[in-house]
């Protein structure tokens, strides 16, 4: 933790990436593992993370992201796509994974699976979509923190049109919805925003002790 706060002060939402600098395969695997290990409600991880490398696909996405240059200039483009409808089968698969990973009979945790179904699959579709979308923010947080530890720049983005991104990537057919975008790479030396002081609320204004 001795460097964590220092790295958080170092990071910022990069506006201009150096397109000539690429993340190494080793660092990319670390970022993917950080996302994989993210917390989520029930541990269910009701989302997929699409990493778009194809320059042509990224060029198609750029107009749907308000023309932002980070989409095409960053080393990697991460799209967090939430499941729009969690079904009983999805929970059954998760329960089976728990049983296999921990070496316990499925029957021992079936009650937990039934409890999850009673709380999730019974929700109206719109409520499910909101809930699964929130889960992607937890995964994004791990990506941002891991990137900062590696001194890799990352920019979270809500400024895009999900419907168009869904269409470009064929996400609707997969039962997915583009919830968040993160561009990851290395800041360009000409990105003036890197020199701006970080603006945050003071501790006195932010925290309430009861």
Report what the structure shows.
The protein has a single domain (4-86, 121-188), classed as NADH Oxidase (3-Layer(aba) Sandwich). Helices cover 48% and strands 14% of the residues. The chain has 9 helices and 4 strands. Strands 1-2-4-3 form a 4-stranded antiparallel beta sheet, with helices on both faces. InterPro entries: NfsB-like, Nitroreductase, Nitroreductase-like, Nitroreductase/BluB. One of its GO terms (cellular component) is cytosol.
Compute the CA-based radius of gyration. 19 Å
Q: Which structural class do the helices and strands define? A: alpha+beta
Distance between the termini: 26 Å
- State the share of residues found in helices, binned by percent: 40-55%
Family: Belongs to the nitroreductase family.
Cofactor: FMN
Domain Nitroreductase: 10-186
GO cellular component, one term: cytosol
